[in-house]
Amino acid sequence: MLTALLVMSILALVLGAGLGFSALKFKVEGNPLVGKIDAILPQTQCGQCGYPGCRPYATAIAEGEADINMCPPGGEEGIQKLAELLGVEAKPFGAGAAPKPKAVAFVDENNCIGCTLCLQACPVDAILGAAKQMHTIIASECTGCELCIAPCPVDCISMEPIAESVTTWKWQYPVYAFIPSTEATRR
Amino acid sequence: MRQLHRFHGGVHPPTNKTQSSETPIIASAMPSKLVIPLHQHVGNIARPVVSVGEHVLKGQVIGKADGRLSSAVHASTSGTIATIGYSKVAHPSGMDDLCVTLIPDGKDEWVANLGADYRELSHTDIRHRLRDAGVVGLGGAVFPSDMKLYGGKHQIKTLVLNGAECEPYITCDDRLMRERAAEILLGAEMMRDLLHAEEVVVGIEDNKPEALAAMQQAIVDGKHARMEAVAVPTVYPGGGAKQLIRVLTGIEVAAGVRSTEMGVQCFNVATAYSAYRAISYGEPMLSRVVTVTGNVERPQNYEVLLGTPVAELVAQAGLKSGTQGYIMGGPMMGFLLPSDQVGVVKATNCIIATAPTLFPAPAPTMPCIRCTRCAEVCPAELQPQELHWFAKAREFGKAQDYHLFDCIECGACSYVCPSNIPLVQYYRYAKSEIWARERDKTAADTARQRHEYRQFRLEREKQEKAEKLAQKERAALLAKQQADAAAATANTDEDAQARIQAAMARVQAQHDATQPRNTANLTPEQQAKIDEIEARRAHIQELAHPEADLDKHHEPPKE
Ligand code: SF4
Ligand code: SF4
Ligand code: SF4
Ligand code: SF4
To answer: Which of B136, B278, B408, B553 could join B41 via S-S bond, C-beta 3.0 to 4.6 A?
Structure first.
């Protein structure tokens, strides 16, 4: 009886200490909802939502200041996911905010004067260059936010839509009129 | 006698194999051109290493393996490179991919190639040779074989050779086993050596008794120890790797687990054959056996050079009128080719000419009636009707919870569905959407990281700037304070006087130091002349001021 009591109390002490320690060690900074919302946002960092980036928008949503239908790069699906997370009704995009096909920025290297203005505008440091040197865009890192277009004084940046390739191609949603080979076998 | 096991479900579609299985493999005629895609395998596309107009020899590398998971591509015959560019490839997307077009010169002239006895090569060397020879899985998955031949990582007990060939119409492996059994088994020996596997089991469906007999005979003739050719029941999809492993060894390879972790590795019989040729004869993968069947006069197996346009291949079998298109692969898992001009690739095991007489249009699709016949036949023991529901509603998370990625797209469920629902279409659609989301997610994570780092960098730069500014300000303040302190002490009259004196003295000194330049460095004559003039001037002055002497001792008179 005594041993049982002893064991239980020691256990309680040890576990309590463990819990206290982990509470300190794994303390969550700030509002955890912001992180969850930010994980859904597409991280284009374009500012089309009216906030200076995805995280500020996430913070605004978490604090109830912003609506969930203001991020065009996230698409309808983004709204759907946010609605699911927050337990609210999904709603269509507001006026003027519509998703566009994905694109990457492209510098016309013959016209670039090396002013570094685009470089300073890029939210993800996807532009490579230096003063009076030709600039170029690291296509794999470009989010397509278009923030580099306006600052360019010689208008040498354009957006190129991302073409589908054999490796990124997707099977289409089945349309019944289409006769797939698998079905064609039935006789 | 080996104890066989059963896998769940399966169907029995008409096999349609005898049309093409009774005649020997013949070499396909040399085509007018070869369209060789550089991406015929799983992994990175091969990097082109030839240029347009270059003459290449048979077996010469035209695309080098690029990165860890990749495979080389070779010229299937000697000739001239006509173009390197994008053209249609044998892919369900119907899209263009990078291809090398080769115009054969008809000489079929080999590049120097070195065969070797694999027993004298190191395992690493063998794997490198396989990769450089472009050896990939020929069962349809086209996964680079060298990547599957690392021994020692897991203890491999059984090497399974897949000769089941369960899909209707296809007979290329059947013919290969009948005609080239000895070399398949030599390849298997090499693979066993690489994997340190104990036993080799060849699984062959019991509708191919000739192939089974040939393989069994070759095992006896080649004195292969611990090697067995086993007849497995004919049931579709018995040739799926998981299903065959289950039947032969009883091992259930769980979802998301590699068979090697369970001590089994599996290769297609044709892969073993090609691996053997690649090492022993130094022959890269330049051709493969292709069944040409369906709406043709003479269904037949051909040894086809990779890159041969499908139209030129089927023409040899006597294309019948009414052909509407071509299926690559079998009728259950294959897909319609986007064009008859695409080149034969390493994955092409069969070309079926389709015609309405052979493949009538399916009956109209109706809603799912929840009969669960699909679940009864699913070899992966899934709930196809649920998967269909979730894919249709685009609820991909749920589909994944129902093990969508365990689906091998065998088509057994679609085959039995009384409502004629194109189920596999839905699964493919859902899978590719999920993959696309994964890609987006990775891209978003990278963007988030880069953005956060940029914020951090900007913040740091701002701080550094502020610090520098603060330092400058501090320095300026200090200097000012010092000056002020100095000024404070110097603010008395005496000091002011002293300072004025000092300043005047400085000016005087400066003035004294300045000598007229023209009086320096004079010659003795010049000096004498000057002295004379000075004396004269002094004399005149004396005459003009007789009281000059007085002047020297008294203050000048005030005027
Ligand atoms: S609109 Fe742009 S910045 Fe705003 S959340 Fe969407 S991607 Fe991020
Ligand atoms: S390169 Fe231009 S479009 Fe691309 S992420 Fe940077 S600023 Fe945006
Ligand atoms: S296609 Fe997928 S779901 Fe349908 S029977 Fe085959 S494994 Fe099962
Ligand atoms: S076989 Fe067809 S109709 Fe029957 S449950 Fe499956 S999907 Fe529904």
So the answer is: B136
Q: In whole angstroms, how far apart are CA B511 and each of A112, B507, B519, B521?
A: 61, 6, 16, 20
CA angle B163, B165, B166 (to 5 degrees): 135
Q: pLDDT at position A26, please?
A: 60
Length of chain A counted residue by residue = 187
CB-based contact A123 B451, cutoff 8 Å? yes
**Closest in A44, A141, A184 to B362, CB measured:** A184
Q: Give the model confidence (pLDDT) of B40-92 as tens digits.
A: 999 999 999 999 999 999 999 999 999 899 999 999 999 999 999 999 999 99
| pTM, to two decimals | 0.78
Q: What is the ipTM metric for this complex?
A: 0.77
- Report pLDDT for B314: 94
φ/ψ of B29, rounded to 5, equals -65, 155
Torsion on CA atoms B452, B456, B458, B464, rounded to nearest 10: 180
Say if residues B211 and B204 touch (Cβ distance below 8 Å): yes
Torsion of CA B315, B317, B319, B323, to 10 degrees: -110
* Strand stretches in B147-198, DSSP E: 158-163
Q: What type of residue sits at position B51?
A: S
Whether residue A59 contacts residue A35, with contact meaning beta carbons closer than 8 Å, is answered with no
Q: Where are the domains of chain A?
A: 32-86, 101-162
User: Which class is A101-162 in CATH?
Assistant: alpha beta
What pLDDT shows up at residue A172?
84
Cα(A154)–Cα(A134) distance, integer angstroms:
13
DSSP secondary structure string for all residues of B274-327: HHHHHHHS---S-EEEEEEEESBSS-EEEEEETT-BHHHHHHHT-BPTT--EEE
Instruction: Say what the pLDDT of residue A28 is.
Output: 55
pLDDT of residue B553: 45
Give residue B174's pLDDT. 95
Mean pLDDT on A41-53? 90
Distance in angstroms (rounded) separating the CA atoms of residues B7 and B112 = 47
Residue A17 pLDDT exceeds 80: no
CATH number for the domain whose boundaries are A32-86: 1.10.15.40
Atom of ligand 2 nearest to the CA of A141: 5
Residues contacting ligand 1 via CB (< 6 Å): A 41-42, 44-49, 51, 53-54, 57, 71, 73-74
Mutate to test the pocket of ligand 1, among A55, A69, A71 (most ligand atoms within 8 A of CB): A71
pLDDT at A185: 44
Model pLDDT, residue B38: 95
With a cut of 50, list the residues of chain B below it in pLDDT.
547-559
3-class DSSP assignment, residue B373: helix
Q: What are phi and psi of B288, to 5 degrees?
A: -150, 165
The reply to whether residue B454 touches residue A166, judged by beta carbons under 8 angstroms, is no
Q: Give the whole-angstrom CA distance, residue B415 versus residue B377.
A: 9
Q: What is the pLDDT of residue B517?
A: 58
Contact yes or no for B64/B47 (Cβ under 8 A): yes
* Cβ–Cβ < 8 Å for B350, B344: no
What domains are defined for chain B?
18-354 (3.40.50.11540), 364-478 (1.10.1060)
DSSP E strands, B325-441: 325-328, 335-336, 350-354
Name the residue of chain B whose CA is nearest to A121's CA: B454
Ligand nearest to the CA of B420: 4
- What's the confidence (pLDDT) of residue A102? 86
3-state secondary structure of B538: helix
Question: Which residue type occupies A143?
Answer: T
